[in-house]
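Hey L., structure's done. Input below.
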Amino acid sequence: MRSVVEGGLTKAAAALHFNVTAETVAEWVKRFRDEGVDGLRDRSSRPHSLPSQTLPDRCTAVEALRRQRYVGWQNAPELGISLELR
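Output:
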């Protein structure tokens, strides 16, 4: 990203070179400006919070039914959960 920040290479040209979108290059440039080379290291894309995460007891119940070869449409009424796919 040094070539974009210091060398005058456009974000569009860098995106073409690295086969990514200009938005991705913009994110890389921001991270490079904020954190230097360390900002470009791989990092997790996992969300910081999961507000609708399934509760552990519900996971255990689903797992127990799956071990009995129950499938989703059979699990839902048994556990009182929606069949809606997320």
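DSSP finds five helices and no strands in the chain. The two ends are 37 Å apart (CA to CA).

-- N.
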